[in-house]
């Protein structure tokens, strides 16, 4: 994926710059995640998932703070409380972390979401909502990859490395869900100002 590494760097620099200007706690958390690149928000999601022992998909305040600390987010207790209150809409003392991650994701226009979904559907050959190595055969040509050409990697290893780009940093399972794909591109999208440019980039990258 040419260009994404550059966008990633630009986005991280931009996020760090904006951090010093904003006081909104949710925006500060978003920018801290984006300062780690496109996978930043996804990585935080993984930390929360690992902590969710009982699979309730919710976190109480203590778990929430522990998750932020484990992920080395620079947020003091007051700020964390404020963020928690914003997301604990019903005052139950727990927050739904999927909803939390979706809100944390940088906002995208419908036009951007639609082109991301077009790319996802093209890659998801089996149409089951998850991209796997099997899906990539025939859609993505591994033979042009330098590591395949010099004999370091097999075709499957190239596919796996490709999927790992979109997969979450701490739990690479070789499967990419719609949510992970969308999270990845929400990060990339944050570094691209206009819809037109974003759509052109996606069309070129995925030959849509």
UniProtKB/TrEMBL annotation:
Domain EF-hand per the UniProt entry, residue ranges: 39-74, 75-110, 111-146
Single Gene Ontology MF annotation: metal ion binding
UniProt keyword list: Calcium, Metal-binding, Repeat
Record-linked SUPFAM superfamilies: EF-hand
SMART domains assigned: EFh
UniProt keyword annotation of Nucleotide-binding present: no
Keyword Calcium: yes
A Pfam family hit: EF-hand_7
InterPro entries: Ca-bind, EF-hand-dom_pair, EF_Hand_1_Ca_BS, EF_hand_dom
PANTHER family in the cross-refs: CALCYPHOSIN, CALCYPHOSINE LIKE
Name the UniProt record assigns to this protein: Calcyphosin-like protein
UniProt lineage: Eukaryota, Metazoa, Chordata, Craniata, Vertebrata
